[in-house]
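Consider the tokenized backbone below.
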């Protein structure tokens, strides 16, 4: 699987969806309470569309749909097991706000796993030098996102941690669970996809995935500082995601392989 031509129609689609995503996320903290659940679903769908289009533009439709599908499958199965058993995220439960639900898991949740699969993988490609390293870095990038995600979604009331935890009421083992699931997802992907490590051209096509991750990094930091969980979570998420975003962006800018 090699990068597709820069003129791929997926490029303008990705850019249009990214622009709509930015607008929706900027509006998100200001919408009336009655619209919040719809806006949550809308931002996930816009992000997912932008992510799939970005992957499609660089590596073709088979790559894009397979990675998103794998992200959905692994994410959904991990959530079903997690809600039923408390493994590997610790004991938690979803409220009734996000619908529809299947086996007590809102369908939008595995869509969120799918939407971040490509940006996290591209970070892994840029930072890691071997298939194993790429899978580990991608799993770390995915986990770092949850440092921002969980406090926001708990604060809105989408899920709960009955026993609390050390990080704003969230158990630290949750993040170990995210990393483990990320290793399954990206380890599986690195094994079955056999994606070649192609030279970066510092083109827009190469940048779309890392830019989605970088936008999430900055956006979550500002959103927590101004609207959601406060400066403590803003600093934590800025540090956690920055560990992965900064070296990925630097390698992308330098045109190094990735």
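A designed sequence for it:
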């Amino acid at each position: 699987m090699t990068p597709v031509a820069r003129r791929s129609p997926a490029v303008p689609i990705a850019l249009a969806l990214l622009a709509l995503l930015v607008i929706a996320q900027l509006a998100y903290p200001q919408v009336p309470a009655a619209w919040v659940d719809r806006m949550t679903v809308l931002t996930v769908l816009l992000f997912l569309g932008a992510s799939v289009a970005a992957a499609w533009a660089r590596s073709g439709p088979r790559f894009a749909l397979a990675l998103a599908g794998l992200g959905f499958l692994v994410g959904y199965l991990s959530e079903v097991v997690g809600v039923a058993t408390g493994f590997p995220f610790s004991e938690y439960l979803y409220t009734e706000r996000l619908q529809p639900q299947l086996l007590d898991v809102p369908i939008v949740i595995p869509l969120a796993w799918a939407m971040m699969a490509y940006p996290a993988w591209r970070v892994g490609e840029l930072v890691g030098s071997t298939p194993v390293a790429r899978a580990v870095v991608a799993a770390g990038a995915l986990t770092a996102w949850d440092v921002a995600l969980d406090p926001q979604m708990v604060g809105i009331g989408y899920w709960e941690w009955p026993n609390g935890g050390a990080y704003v009421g969230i158990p630290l083992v949750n993040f170990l669970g995210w990393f483990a699931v990320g290793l399954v997802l990206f380890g599986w992907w690195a094994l079955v996809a056999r994606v070649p490590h192609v030279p970066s051209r510092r083109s827009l096509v190469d940048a779309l995935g890392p830019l989605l991750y970088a936008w999430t990094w900055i956006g979550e930091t500002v959103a927590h500082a101004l609207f959601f969980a406060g400066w403590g979570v803003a600093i934590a998420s800025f540090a956690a995601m920055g560990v992965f975003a900064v070296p990925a962006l630097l390698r992308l800018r330098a045109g190094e392989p990735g």
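Residues 56 and 62 are 8 Å apart (CA to CA).
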